[in-house]
Amino acid sequence: ARGVLGPILSQVPECVVIANRTPCKVEVLIQDFSKYGVVLSGASEKNEKLDFDIIINSTSASLENSVPDTITPSLFRKKVWCYDMAYKDEPTSFLMFAKAQGAIHCMDGLGMLVEQAAESFFLWHGVKPETQDLINQLRENTRRN
Predict the structure, then answer these.
(1) Nearest 5°: phi and psi at 62?
(2) 41 — alpha (psi -120 to 50), left (phi > 0) or beta?
(3) Using an 8 Å Cβ cutoff, are 33 and 60 in contact?
(4) Which CATH architecture best describes the domain 2-109?
C-alpha cells in the first residue's frame, strides 16, 4: 500500500481510505501521508458510507483465494473500479467478489509488473520497450498453463 499512496495522492483525490487488519499500520500510513491529502482509517463506520471510485487490494489474500475482511459489500454502493495488485492466471478472488458486487471495471497487477520492469529497463538502457504485446503474451501463456 505504501508504494501506491504517493502517486494516488498526487492526483488530489477527495480522500483516500486505508483499511488494514493491523490498526497500528494504518495509523503509521495516515501519519506519513496525511500531509499530501486527506487520508482516513478504514476502521471507521462512517467511511463505509462513502461512495468509492476505486478500491485497490494490496494484500496477498487473493493469492490464497480469499478476500480481505475489510472488503465488504457495503463498499460497492455505486459502480466502482477495482484493482488487485496481485495477479494470477485467472481472475483473483478479490476481482470475482468485486464483479459480483457490481464493479464496472476490474484489473489485476500484471500490467503494473510489466510496466515497472519496462521503467527499469529504460533507466538502465535508455530505451523504453513496448509493453502491450508482452502483457498480452503473458496473459495468454498464464491461461494456457
Answers:
(1) -65, -30
(2) beta
(3) no
(4) 3-Layer(aba) Sandwich (3.40)
pLDDT at 143: 74
d(CA 55, CA 136): 24
Burial-class residue 7 by CB neighbours within 10 Å (0-12, 13-18, 19+): exposed
User: What's the pLDDT tens digit per position in 40-53?
Assistant: 887 666 666 788 99
Nearest CA among 70, 65, 79, 21 for reference residue 47:
70
Q: Under a CB-based contact definition with an 8 Å cutoff, are residues 79 and 54 in contact? A: no
Pick the residue with more confidence: 82 or 41?
Answer: 82
Q: What Cα–Cα distance (Å) separates residue 19 from each residue in 44, 49, 80, 143? A: 9, 14, 17, 31
Instruction: Decide the pairing of beta strands 39-41 and 16-18.
Output: parallel
pTM, two decimals, is 0.85
Residue-level pLDDT at 139: 87
Domain positions in the chain are 2-109, 110-145
The set of residues, in sequence order, having a beta carbon less than 8 Å from that of 28 and lying 6+ positions away, is none
